[in-house]
Every structure is written in structure tokens, then in C-alpha cells.
Amino acid sequence: MCEIQKEQMISCQLSFITIGDIEYTKNIETVLEIIKNSGLYFNTGETSTLIKGSSDKVLSLVNKICSEMQTKYFLMNIALSNLCGCNR
After folding, report:
1. Cβ–Cβ contacts within 10 Å for residue 62, how many?
2. Beta carbons of 25 and 17 less than 8 angstroms apart
3. Cβ pair 60, 67 in contact under 8 A
4. Residues with Cβ within 8 Å of residue 56, at least 6 apart in sequence
5. Chain-centroid distance, C-alpha 9
6. 49-54 and 74-81 beta bridge pairing
7. First CA to last CA across the chain, in angstroms?
């Protein structure tokens, strides 16, 4: 019988910055709504959002943000860790 492996948990610190768009707060609100609807644990701070979950789901979320915001110019800083804060 094969042993069932646990999903790899990661934490992600994400900052989304719109470039050259006067409605930058609307774009940030859109990204935050995508994160909220992901079902993943998240904690929003002043300059970034911490997201925790399985690596597949977190990376899928990052891909979804890129797809949804593809009509905007943006910079997204992402720090991933499979150690920091993954005891949740």
C-alpha cells in the first residue's frame, strides 16, 4: 500500500503595484477580491498580503492574478517559502 503524502504547504508574501494607471486603488481592490475568493488563508497588511496554502493552490492563485490583470501594466513582488509560517 502506498503512503499518502501531505500536500506541500507554502507561504507567499505578495505585493501588487499598478504602473501608469490613475485607478490604481481599483486594481488593488480587484486583486484583493481574487485573493479573498481563492479560499486560501490570507492576511492583508499595509504593503503586502501573506497567503498560505498548498503550493499548487498558491501558485494557481498567482497565475489567476496575472491572467485577470493582463490588460494592466503591473509589478508583482512575490516571496515564497516552504518554511516560514507553514505550521498552520
Report:
1. 15
2. no
3. no
4. 7
5. 14
6. unpaired
7. 28
Distance of CA 44 to the CA centre of its chain: 11
Helix or strand holding residue 65 (H, E): helix 55-68
d(CA 13, CA 11): 7
CA distance 80 to 57: 13
Q: Are 8 and 59 in contact (CB under 8 A)?
A: no
All structural domains of the chain, each given as residue ranges with its CATH number in brackets, are 9-81 (3.30.70.930)
- Average pLDDT per block of 10 residues along the chain, 88 residues long: 62 95 92 97 96 96 97 96 71
Q: How far apart are CA 84 and CA 32, in angstroms?
A: 22
**49-64 confidence digits (pLDDT tens):** 999 999 999 999 999 9
CA 65/CA 40 separation, integer angstroms: 14
CA 41 to chain centroid, in Å, comes to: 10
